[in-house]
Structure formats: structure tokens, C-alpha cells
Description:
This protein has a nine-stranded antiparallel beta sheet, with no helix packed on it. A five-stranded antiparallel beta sheet has the order 1-2-3-4-5, with no helix packed on it. Strands 19-18-21-24-27 form a five-stranded antiparallel beta sheet. Residues about 15-25 have low confidence and may be disordered. The longest helix is centred in the N-terminal third of the chain and has 26 residues, at about 1-25. It is built from three helices and 29 strands. With about 375 residues, the protein is mostly beta strands. The site of beta-D-glucopyranose (BGC) has 9 residues, from strand 24 and strand 27.
Amino acid sequence: MKISKAIFSVIALALLTVPLWRLDTTTAMVTPEIKKQAFGMTASREAVELYTLTNANGVEARIMTYGGTVVSLKVRDRHGVLGDVVLGYETLEGYLKNSPYFGAIIGRYGNRIGKARFSLSGKEYTLGKNNGENTLHGGFKGFDKVIWKGKEVKSKDGVGLSLSYVSKDGEEGFPGNLTVTVVYTLTNNNELKIEYSATTDKYTVVNLTNHSYFNLACEGAILNHELMIDASRFTPVDAGLIPTGELRSVKGTPMDFTRSTVIGARIDQRDEQLTAGRGYDHNWVLNNVTGSLAFAARVYEPRSGRVMEIYTTEPGIQFYSGNFLDGSITGKGGQVYKQRYGLCLETQHFPDSPNKPGFPSTVLKPGQRYNSSTIYRFSVR
Length: 381
Ligand code: BGC
């Protein structure tokens, strides 16, 4: 009798405390805030700051002024438990020493420019060859390796951080002084919104993106994540990962993510495109062609229940399955980042557009404003 009473009390207590605990972590409202702290110095003794943005649900993004980098992003799983869903380092030193663009703003031209050159207004411009014969992510010192000026911004949606940088005429070979602003907003709807804008004083090319490596399980390989991309075509590449210029249908190929598919299901298939990328490392041609914010992709991680949806104004998205991670980097919490332990979904104009007249233009002229917006929205299932 006594024993059954005790069991009953334990069960009753468990039933009472579980919902309370859930309530505490999932629905408790906190006041949205943004805090700034020192995060160290670069080799040339420039101070780096770290901003911590917290929304009303306790979701938290940490962004530093070096590279405008998302250092951590803590979102809830289906039990309400916060977990950091981006790869990176705990300290600035890691980023300064060796970072495959973890979380950074990429520019002046995200992705590759073939043979590290392009012509504009009858003039040829040569860039740094930092990826074989090609230029990758803005060259040797892209926007991921510069210090951005941070400023808090008021937002009715949540908390915001504005980052600005002036890229000098001729920097990394690109023409024109380019004044760039990137506003990160962590909304109370659990979205990380990124709004990029830029102006120039000479004809130039611009393609900005963010290079966060996501892992919605917060550990291990991303091969069990399910991915859907709203794109019927992709841009096939040559062995140097430069698009051939063709827009090819995904139908009947391992590139077809029009229906949600486990990333690992086809990644090792014998396929000339997968061989070139050592997995997925391609640009998808989004079905959205209006230039206004539209749904682009969705990732679902079944163990945690986390869902990430991406909306963008851009015509393309690079899905990179972390193929070049090789276990040589130990990141946050002592995690060893092995091949395919993180995935990137970089909204963008197509790679090598400056040399591909058939692709949507990336040219920015004086008097025009470059505008691009992307939203990463988190929820659970
Ligand atoms: C590229 C990969 C590259 C990686 C660098 C991605 O955006 O598509 O080819 O290796 O960035 O970390």
C-alpha cells in the first residue's frame, strides 16, 4: 500500500513538473536586449567587439565585429532546450588563425570568380587567386577578415545590430569605393534577418552573403538532416567549381531537393557533379524570380525537431555540405569538425556572374543601391 502511494506521488510530481519545466523554457518571455563586450584584438591591434542579441523567447545570437561573424546562435529544440546551431570557435584567436569562413559576412563577391578576373565597362580587373586559378569569397582578405563598425539599432520586431564597412577602390582588385551596411535583426518570431545594402562611386560587382555552417543537432554529421530547396534548376560546374553557364534541370538527379530529402541519401552516388564538389557544393536557381522575399529552402533535423526555413530576395542559393571540413579543426566545446559536420545555405547571385552574361547581373553602378535580404527562421516539429 505504502509503496504504491509512493509511486503515485512520484508520478504525480513528474506530471506536474514536466509541463512547468517546459513552460519555463519555451514560453517564458524575457525582455529583448543587446549587450556589447570586448572580444580581443587582431594581430594589428584592432579591437574586436562581441554583441549578444537576445529575443523575447530567450533565443540568442552572438555576432562579432571581425568579419561581421555569427559566433553562436542558440535556438530551442522540440523540448524547449537551447542549443547552438552554428559551427565556430569560442574565442577570437580561432577565427584569426584558421576559419573556413565560419559565420562570416562574405564580400565583395561571394562565391567564385573564374580565372580571378572580369571585365567591366571595357576594362579588365584582376583579382587574387586564393582558390586554385580562381577567386573565392572576395579574395585573400575578403569582408570576412575586416573589422566592421557596430551600432545597435532599434527595431519593433526584436533586437538589431548594424554593421558597416567601407571597402576602398582597388581593395582585392575590385573597382570603386563600396560603402556597405549589414543589419542583423533577431526577431521575436525566432528569425535571424540579414539585410545587406551597398553603394559605390564606380561601376563594380557585388554579391554579399553569410557563411554560417549550420548543424541543427548541435553535433555530429549533418547527413540525417532533411533538406528541401525550392529550385527546379541548378548551375552545373566544372572541376574547379566554376559554373559552365548552363541552367540544368534537377529532375532525376541527386540535386533534386524539390521534395524534402535526407542529405545523406544520395551524397555518395556516382555523379559527375557530386564528384566535382566532393558532395554538394552547388548553386541552385531558386524558383522565386521576383526579387522580393520568398521561400527558398527548409532544413529539418529529426532528432532535435529543429526546423530552419530560409527566405530571400536573391535568385540563387549555394548548398555546401561541409565537404572540405576534415577533422583538423577543433571548435566550440572541444568538438572536432569532421567532413560534413556543418552545412551552409548561402543566398546569393550565381557564382562567376561577372563572366556569365546570361546570369542575372551583379553589376552595381554609382547612384544605385544594392539591396539584399535573407531570413533564417527557426521553429520545431
Ligand atoms: C564554397 C566551398 C568552399 C567553402 C569554404 C563555400 O561557400 O562553395 O567550395 O570550400 O565555401 O569554406
